[in-house]
Design goal:
The chain is an alpha/beta fold. It has a domain of 202 residues: 3-Layer(aba) Sandwich (Rossmann fold), CATH 3.40.50.1100. Helices cover 44% and strands 12% of the residues. Helix 4 crosses helix 8. It is globular and about 65 Å long. It binds ligand F0G. The site of ligand F0G has 22 residues, from helix 5, helix 9 and helix 13.
Length: 412
């Protein structure tokens, strides 16, 4: 198969060449791959913040933690608004602008709203954000405000916000930018293309993503399928999806209903980004997992918190929802699904700075205080905690702390 008249070799060469260009479209890690994206009538409609082009890091010590020799993270939290949403948003917002929409809207657990608000602002459109009151992080909320969104905190959860938005969209001329928007999935595809390019088109054995509304797994699955059809890759990596135990609709759907019908749950997790009970794209995610031979797994809150600290200790960091990937990988290795010598890429979806509250509570030892996990958390997490210290303003006090740290904490 060909795209825009080019075969696989031609596409690879063209995309690589564009990395030397200062053209705004070429600088974007999404539009650099425009031959495999839906075409706009005119490229002038593109709204870009130079998204994509995110780094792939080796994670040797997280690899030891999980039990694999070759572990990498593609850090989508290094996008302009700090999450993977930007790659899809540049595409969908551009189509909204081309369509002449004045308003765009989404329901969100925080990252979509931050991203949508930014792209709408850049594109001269207004944005309406519906978020569950008290259930998104300050970092994400403050982004939406700064980018000028009309922000409504609804007294419900994410699933309730989606229901309200569906009705609003029927009644008002607003363009829906949730992940069911087909252009968002198209833009998000490029994360996988970029990853494969980085590996010189030699696929890793496994790609692991967190699962919430399941747009991301669907998009990556679509990318893998299309890359194979275009001859860009010859084999598909296995795509596995990890959820929080308290928001495990996909896990239950696969295990209890064989992937045939959605089992919704009442979602409860500290990873607010993936606190979703009725994932919209569950069918697509089931198809991708089955087509690539991937797995679904769930992890506890404590497992997630520990994994997040491990990623932080590698100098990378991510938000809690992203850390389920490492916690899930550890389980999949233990189960023998992922082999020690296989290569694995974790997709880290959000930046550490998205949820500083979680991180501070973790290090102060407050995260699980008063919960049923308190004892388990104290046993498992304490060695990874680095609480800030309040000292008198003199060098002796600081030197004593330094000496104590050297004696008691071997570091890595
Ligand atoms: N990780 C982060 C940091 C997220 O913000 C989300 C979803 C996911 C993972 C899950 O991705 O929905 O494609 O399966 N956040 C959405 C939002 C729901 O509104 O920001 P998914």
């Amino acid at each position: 198969m060909r795209a825009a008249g080019l075969d696989a070799a031609g596409l690879k060469q063209l995309w690589l060449q564009r990395r030397l260009s200062w053209n705004a479209l070429d600088e974007s890690g999404v539009w650099r791959f425009r031959e495999i994206l839906p075409a706009l009538n005119d490229w002038k409609h593109v709204i870009t913040l130079r998204e994509g082009n995110t780094p792939v890091y080796e994670l040797p010590s997280c690899g030891r933690f999980a039990g694999v020799e070759r572990l990498f993270a593609k850090h989508q939290g290094m996008n302009p608004t700090g999450s993977f949403k930007d790659t899809g948003m540049t595409a969908a917002a551009s189509f909204a602008r081309q369509g002449g929409f004045r308003w765009v809207a989404c329901a969100s657990t925080g990252n979509t709203s931050a991203s949508m608000a930014a792209y709408a602002a850049r594109g001269g459109m207004r944005s309406l954000v519906l978020i569950p009151q008290g259930q998104i992080t300050w970092g994400k909320l403050s982004q939406a405000l700064d980018y000028g969104a009309v922000t409504c905190q609804l007294k419900t959860d994410f699933d309730g916000c989606m229901r309200v938005l569906d009705e609003v969209v029927q009644r008002m001329p607003v363009y829906l930018l949730n992940s069911v928007n087909p252009y968002r999935l198209e833009g998000q595809k490029t994360a996988a293309v970029e990853l494969l390019e980085r590996f010189d088109w030699q696929p890793p054995d496994h790609i692991i993503v967190p699962g919430g509304n399941l747009g991301n797994s669907s998009a990556i699955g679509k990318a893998l399928r299309e890359m194979k059809e275009l001859g860009l890759i010859t084999k598909m990596p296995k795509l596995s999806v990890i959820q929080a135990e308290g928001a495990n609709a996909l896990v239950r759907t696969m295990r209890e209903a064989g992937g045939k019908r959605l089992i919704s749950v009442h979602a409860e997790t500290m990873a607010t980004a993936i606190k979703i009970g009725s994932p919209a794209s569950w069918k697509k995610a089931v198809n991708v997992i089955e087509a690539t031979g991937g797995a679904v797994e769930q992890v506890s809150e404590v497992e997630m918190a520990l994994a997040k600290a491990e990623i932080g200790a590698d100098g990378i960091g991510c938000e809690p929802a992203s850390a389920v990937t490492l916690a899930g990988l550890k389980k999949l290795v233990r189960q023998g699904f992922v082999k020690k010598n296989e290569s694995v890429v974790l997709i880290l979806t959000g930046n550490l700075l998205k949820d500083p509250d979680f991180t501070l509570k973790f290090h102060r030892g407050d995260l699980f205080a008063g919960t049923e996990h308190e004892e388990e958390a104290a046993a498992v997490l304490t060695p990874r905690q680095h609480a800030p210290m309040v000292l008198d303003a003199n060098a002796n006090a600081v030197v004593r702390v330094l000496e104590y740290a050297e004696q008691t904490d071997p570091g890595r």
